[in-house]
Structures are given as structure tokens and as C-alpha cells.
Amino acid sequence: MLWVSRSVLRLGLGFTTHRAPQIISRWPRWGPRVACHPCSSSGQNPSGFEPPGQKKVHRIPAQYKPSKFDKKILLWTGRFKSIEDIPPLVPPEMIAVSRNKARVKACYIMIGLTIVACFAVIVSAKRAVERHESLTSWNLAKKAKWREEAALAAQSKSK
Question: Domain range holding 74?
């Protein structure tokens, strides 16, 4: 059995070989994992051999300088109490989470405004029915007015 995990090619017989880091495989992991080589569990290579082009990557948390809009979002979502409390550099994950929360809050506000607008339309339609107003009567009155204006324009031209 053969499967690929990160940059190590594993054979089901207990052998491991390192593959080039540029090759990307989308093979699913079939079968049980076999503990083949000590470097497969610790992530370090005991022989000291590193493939060319592979560098050590240090995991330093990336920092992001928030803009004025990001600061307003951080305040609105409740992450900080005031603008002075916001540090000059924040993790990008914090910005992403607060943007998602702000997006959800904005959606809830729009849903609420839509429901309020629906009830306002219902109330105004009921009042229009009490006054005996309808779109059909408005349309007929508008067309009658246009006919009168057209007749007056025709009379003024014929003179």
C-alpha cells in the first residue's frame, strides 16, 4: 500500500522516502497508518539531510495594523471597550472574527428592517383600502388625464 503524507512518501511495508516538496498529491489516506520512520512522527530529519529549496519556517504570529474602519468593527463587535484600548498591532484572526461577527449583526439588522417594512406596507395598504384607493383607480385616473391633455393639444393644433 502506498500513500503520501506532507513531504514523506510512505510505503505499506515500513519504508519511507522523502519526495520533492513541489509535488502536491490529493490521494486520500487509505488504510491504517504505519509508524515507518522516527522522522515521520517528530517532523525532524535525524540524518540532517534537507531537500533543496526547503527552509526552516518559524511560526511567529503575523501582526496586522487595523484601519479606522477595522477599529470601528472591533468596537462594534465588543472586542474592545474604547478606541484607546485597541493595540497598534492585532492578529489578523481577530480582525477576521470581528468582521464575521459584524457581517452577521448587519444581516440581523437588515432582516429586522425588512420585517418592519413589511408591516408598514400592510398597514398603509389597509388604510388605502379604507379610502377606496387602489392601483387600478390611480392608473385609470392617470390615463384619463393623459387623454384630456392629448385632446387639448389636438384642439390647440387645429386652430
Answer: 68-122
